[in-house]
Design a protein that fits this description.
By secondary structure, this protein is of the alpha+beta class. It has 2 domains: about 240 residues, Aminopeptidase, CATH 3.40.630.10; about 120 residues, 2-Layer Sandwich (Alpha-Beta Plaits). It is about 35% helix and about 30% strand. The chain has an 8-stranded mixed β-sheet, with helices on both faces. A 4-stranded antiparallel β-sheet has the order 13-15-11-16, covered by helices on one side. A 3-stranded antiparallel β-sheet has the order 4-6-5, with no helix packed on it. A hairpin with a 3-residue loop joins strand 1 and strand 2. Helix 1 packs antiparallel against helix 3 and helix 3 crosses helix 11. It starts with 9 loop residues before the first helix and ends with a helix. The chain binds zinc ion (ZN) (2 copies).
């Protein structure tokens, strides 16, 4: 249980709110979280917590407090290319540049600012109550969650060679549930995701001379239609899978057959064997349809790969029991796995350590009981209620950490 020493004081709660509003007003794009990383480093150093950079704009804090287990807790730090439309007085007006140089508005539209404010505040409480716990806490401030680049970058930069290897890795995400509540899944928690860009190569000609062309539009139409048979005809219907083609571009004018066309696709799966089958079927169909059209082999570029996010059932059951004690029975609910994706799972999978990831509600009752759905993550209107959202996030983080390290 949380000891009284670890309760938020009004003063610390106010500082957490200021920190949150500052982060919200200053979001940065994935893998460009330079000011955010500097702020985190300064806060950790001010608390006397040793820290280092990892994976570019990632920051790791190591809070040691004698012998005991090691727990890692992850907070992601990036914003989204999105124009904020919440009307909040601390709304973002920030801009950033995508990799291709395009200038875009930037918003903390997924609530990662809540994750950072919560973890820094939990760290402050832990440093002030060393008698209440023993062991080591590894604070992982991870960049680039939205592009699936961040966990990978930290692991490739030797995260678990530089930081103590944990016995468990925890993480949490704000969602549009009732503030003050937690939801979780046991086992599969969020889907794996694979995104590809496919370029179809053909031969252009005048629209009136189709005999001189290899039409990439017709080829693309056949491929895209047939891709829908992977889930409907090849996968056991009891196992979830999604294949979505989100873009299809080709040509500039109705009377010109273009020389190329391209589409992007997105796959969601839970079972690694299902994922392997879907990805192999994609390649088979793309290749075979190109051959059927007499076109050259299409070019496939992998855009992103989100790993499995699997909650260790034993570690989850033990933690949920603690959550119920601290937050109350009615504030903790089991949910179905989410088809959304996260790169969090990679942090534990890389070292074969169990992970547990849960959601904490971000909307007050009035918003949820009002008319229409509340704006969810990635909406320009996404605006979590500051309280009790942030305090619940801190409580949940401390409950998880102290479930392993509490005296
Ligand atoms: Zn997101
Ligand atoms: Zn997110």
């Amino acid at each position: 249980m949380i000891t009284t020493d670890l309760q938020l004081t009004d003063e610390l709660r106010q500082r957490m709110h200021e920190l949150y509003r500052h982060l919200h007003a200053h979001p940065e794009l994935s893998m460009q979280e330079h000011a955010t990383a500097t702020l985190i480093e300064q806060r950790l150093t001010a608390l006397g917590i040793e820290n280092f950079r990892c994976g570019g704009t990632g920051v790791v804090g190591v809070l040691r407090n004698g012998d005991g287990p090691t727990v890692a807790f992850r907070a992601d730090t990036d914003g989204l290319p999105l124009a904020e439309d919440t009307g909040l007085d601390y709304a973002s007006t920030a801009t950033g540049r995508l990799e291709d140089g395009t200038q875009v508005p930037v918003m903390h539209g997924c609530g990662h600012d809540t994750h950072v404010a919560v973890l820094l505040t939990a760290a402050e409480l832990l440093t002030g109550a060393r008698e209440a716990w023993a062991g080591t806490v590894v604070l992982v401030f991870q960049p680039g969650e939205e592009t699936a680049a961040g966990a990978k970058a930290m692991l490739e930069d030797g995260l678990w060679g530089k930081a103590p290897v944990p016995d468990v890795v925890y993480g949490q995400h704000v969602m549009p549930g009732r503030a003050g509540t937690i939801s979780y899944a046991s086992g599969d928690t969020m889907a794996m995701a694979d995104s590809w860009k496919v370029t179809l190569h053909g031969k252009g000609s005048h629209a009136s001379q189709p005999q001189d062309s290899t039409d990439p539009i017709v080829l693309g139409a056949h491929i895209i239609t047939r891709l829908q048979t992977i889930v409907s005809r090849e996968i056991d219907p009891r196992r979830p899978a999604v294949v979505t083609v989100g873009t299809f571009h080709g040509g500039l004018k109705e009377n010109i057959i273009p020389a190329s066309a391209e589409f992007t696709l997105n796959v969601r799966t839970f079972d690694p064997a299902v994922r392997d089958h879907v990805l192999a079927a994609l390649r088979r169909i793309i290749s075979a349809e190109a051959a059927a059209s007499g076109a050259p082999e299409p070019t496939v570029e992998v855009l992103s790969t989100f790993p499995r996010n699997y909650n260790d059932p034993d570690a989850t059951a033990a933690l949920v029991e603690r959550f119920r004690q601290v937050l109350g029975e009615d504030s903790v609910a089991e949910i179905e796995p989410l088809m959304g994706s996260e790169d969090f799972g990679a942090l534990g999978a890389a070292i074969g350590v169990p992970t547990v990831f849960w959601m904490f509600g971000g909307h007050d009752a009035a918003a949820l009981d009002g008319e229409g759905p509340v704006p969810m993550n990635h909406s320009p209107f996404f605006a979590p209620a500051i309280e009790p959202t942030l305090s619940t996030g801190v409580q949940a983080a401390l409950t998880a950490i102290l479930s392993c390290l509490g005296r």
